[in-house]
Amino acid sequence: MINLVRSLVFYAGYFTAMLLIGILFLPIAPFLPLAARYRLLNLYNYFLMMWFKVACGVQYDIQGQENIPSGPCVIQANHQCEWETVFLQVMKPPVCTVLKQELLHIPVFGWGLRLLRPISLDRSKPARAMKQVLTQGVARLGTGLSVLIFPEGTRVDPGIRKRYNKSGSVVACRAGVPVLPVAHNAGERWPGRHWVKRPGVLRVRIGAPIETAGRTPDEVLVDVEAWIEGQLQEISEVPRRAN
C-alpha cells in the first residue's frame, strides 16, 4: 500500500510540473539558442529526478561520471523505462535522442521534445529509419551535439536480454567519435510496464569511452554489449536471461 500511495504522490508532482513547464517555458523556448533551450527545458528533468527520489524512497548510486568526455559522443545505454531517458538528458547536455516519432505527438511533453532536435523514427519503415539515424546522427555530432541511441531499440524488462543493434556504433565510427556506454537498473525502481514505483537503490554505471578510430562498427558493438551486460550482471537484482 505504501508504494501505491508514494506513486500517486509522485505522479501528482510529475503532471503538475509538466503543466507548469508547458505554461511557463514552452512559449519562450523556441526563441532561445539551442544550448539555452536545453538548460531551460532540462529543469523539468532535474525536478523529476529529485521528486522521484523523494516521493518514492529511491536512492541513487551513480558511478563513473568522470568518464564523460568533453566533446560529442554517441551514448549507448540499456533501455528499461522512462527514468534513464530523463537522466541521460542531464548527464551530458546537449544530447540528441533517437526516439519513436509517436512521442512527439504527446501534448506538452512531445512539444518540448520537438524543440530539442531529436531524431524521430517511423518504426514501421525500418530501412528508412536506419538511413535517417545514420545521416542525421552524423550531422548532429558534427554540430557538437552528442547522440543518444538505445541499442536494444525498445524498452526491455529487467532480467531480459535482447540482441543489440549496431546503428549507434555505425554512427560513431562514421563520425569518428567515441561511444560512451551506460548501464543501469532503473526498471527495478521504475517499472516500464506498471505505474507503481518501488523504493530501493537505483544504480548507474558510466563506462570509459570506447574509441572508434580504425575499428569496424561490429568490433565496437562487441565492446559496448560486453561492457553493458557485464555491468548489469553486477548491479541488477533480477538475474539476466536470454529473451
UniProtKB/TrEMBL annotation:
In its UniProt record, a GO molecular function of this protein is: acyltransferase activity
Q: Which SMART domains match?
A: PlsC
The answer to whether keyword Membrane applies is: yes
The answer to keyword Transmembrane helix applying to this record is yes
Pathway field of the UniProt record reads: Lipid metabolism
Q: Per UniProt, what is one Pfam family of this protein?
A: Acyltransferase
Every Phospholipid/glycerol acyltransferase domain range: 73-187
TM region positions: 12-36
CDD domains, A to Z = LPLAT_AGPAT-like (cd07989)
- Top-rank taxon, per record: Bacteria
Alphabetic keyword roster: Acyltransferase, Membrane, Transferase, Transmembrane, Transmembrane helix
Name the chain's protein. 1-acyl-sn-glycerol-3-phosphate acyltransferase
Please tell me the species this chain comes from.
Vreelandella zhaodongensis
